[in-house]
Amino acid sequence: MLVNFLQTRAVTARHLYILGDLFEVWLGDDDPAPEHQDVIRLLRQLGETTDLFFIAGNRDFLLGNDFARANNITLLDEPHALLLDNTRVLLLHGDLLCTDDHDYQAFRSMVRAPAWQADFLAKPLSLRKQMAAQMRTYSIEAMAQKSMQIMDVNVNAVENCFREHETQIIIHGHTHRPAIHTCGSDLSRIVLGDWDREPSFLSWTQQQGFKLHDPRIT
What we know:
Strand order of the largest sheet: 4-5-6-8-7
Distance between the termini: 20 Å
CATH topology of the largest domain: Purple Acid Phosphatase, chain A, domain 2
CATH class of the largest domain: Alpha Beta
Largest sheet: 5 strands, mixed
Strand content: 15-25%
Number of domains: 2
Low-confidence stretches: none
């Protein structure tokens, strides 16, 4: 489904922002994982005509500068602010808003630390694969014991994000519950869905504004 999107709809865009979890797992720019190659090839081609931007997700936070340079992608810090037609828009992966999940936030702080990443990437790729598989198994087991509410965004965290960044629209993924939430009279939070079965993407034009394309949205 992603391959089809990159070959069809994406080529009509002037700018494409990817808000993380482009890959199921990314163990470093030196990993020649064959399952990634079709997407990488299409991104490289797309980057010749479309400006590509990437914010790291919880699955591909190790995607680095070598990959970005080789594939015409600009890496963005999180969160990233845009000004669209005089409207301030904030882009982020979304996991930072899930503050009720204390175990996950502790894990995120650990693996996003530069020292941890440097140590992990210095290990042989075979060892990195073993470690990633162990962390994935632990994550699945931990998620099975958590409520959906804990793994969703925290209302106070969302309100603080609007206020701290003085933004009118927040766009994120991670929770994979596609919807456009109204947060007060002039604030909106747009949530992108996952790509497991159906495409989910957001478009913006000056004429029509934002439109969330997801078959789960009625």
